[in-house]
Amino acid sequence: MAEKSPRGLADVVAASTSISDIDGRAGRLSYRGYDIHDIAGRISFEECVHLLQRGTLPTQAELDGLMAELADGRRYGAVATTLLPYVVTSGTPMEALRTLVSSLAIDDPDAADPSIEADRRKATRLVAQMPVLVASYEAQRSGREVPAADPELGIAGNFLLQITGERPAPRAAEIFDECLVLHADHTMNASTFTARVIAATLSDMHSAITGAMGALRGPLHGGANEAVMKTLTSIEGEADEVDAFVRDELAAGRKLMGFGHRVYKTEDPRATHLRKMSEELADLTGNGRYYEFSRRMEQVVLDEKGLYPNVDFFAASVYHALGIPTDLFTPVFAISRMSGWTAHVIEQHEDNRLIRPDSDYTGPHDQQWVEISKR
């Protein structure tokens, strides 16, 4: 009898990739061989996009060229524009944005071109369009116009401008830019695997990314950062009451989101940076309530359960301090991860083989048909 496959394909190698790598025991994440601790806060999100999609950190000329492509590609087409008022009125932001991303293919000039060159152009446009779609969604439901993009700002700064209506402080834009770098790729997670499975059928870029969006919609993959923020805002009183709240939640068997990780056996390296950013934003804004709550919660969970915070835990207080609505935290994750998703689709198409795993049949054998009257 064949060995049964591990549940959830744990530890099964599903693809070869040169895009990112994780050492779960050492708590290390790298993009194209660059340790996240070495590049976070040192490269812009646009440089990260070039690294993931095109394989190298860009020269200044290459970065200037990419910036021009991103600026030119941020405008989405008539179909998404027409759909926007309708999708805003129903479902969650992720459901609305999944539909809008799918519709982008209709107006994409390279939609029918399966070449790698066209894939790269589509990938660049999707990275440029995603933050504008999220900002347009927020503006539509708030009954206001989206501010025009500022050519002096990059993707991070323009998103904060368009989501809040105010030009961000330089340091706030830098912090959000680093957040985008930290979330850009994370090997074979559920949404990335979904994108690669779809791409492996030789389906198009937009179909693969729509599938990834659908996977991120699921609460076991996306949404933990939103759940963390809802937990933080539910705690009444001051920081000294957090300890009792956490212990009560644990005693009741309720899961606290933002702790532990399927891969990391120690602290998620992205959390290391986000903790510092949360502290800095608490100082910059003069409001340290949720940073203090987070630190107290982190310590109690470590003491009681031996669990470390993951990327979602401190991302919640960072996004909140930047003025991003809580229900847009997962779409913001998608803004960043669009760079990694599209890189994986390109890589899959470059050396493709249909992904077709086997399965363990657990049903009955040797059943015999009988007439319906005798059943």
* End-to-end C-alpha gap: 32 Å
Strand arrangement, largest sheet? 1-2-3
User: What's the assembly state of these chains?
Assistant: single chain
Overall geometry comes to globular
Q: What is the makeup of the main sheet? A: 3 strands, antiparallel
Please identify the structural class as seen in this structure: mainly alpha
Mean pLDDT: 95
Q: Bin the helical content.
A: 55-70%
Spatial extent as radius of gyration: 22 Å
Strand content bin: under 5%
Count helical runs.
Answer: 16
Structure notes:
The chain has helices at residues 36-39, 45-54, 60-73, 78-88, 93-107, 116-142, 155-164, 170-182, 190-200, 205-217, 224-234, 242-251, 269-285, 289-305, 311-321, 329-350; strands spanning 20-23, 28-31, 34-35. It is an all-alpha fold and 375 residues long. Strands 1-2-3 form a three-stranded antiparallel sheet. Helix 3 packs across helix 6, helix 8 crosses helix 16 and helix 12 packs across helix 14. 46% of the residues are buried. The mean pLDDT is 95.
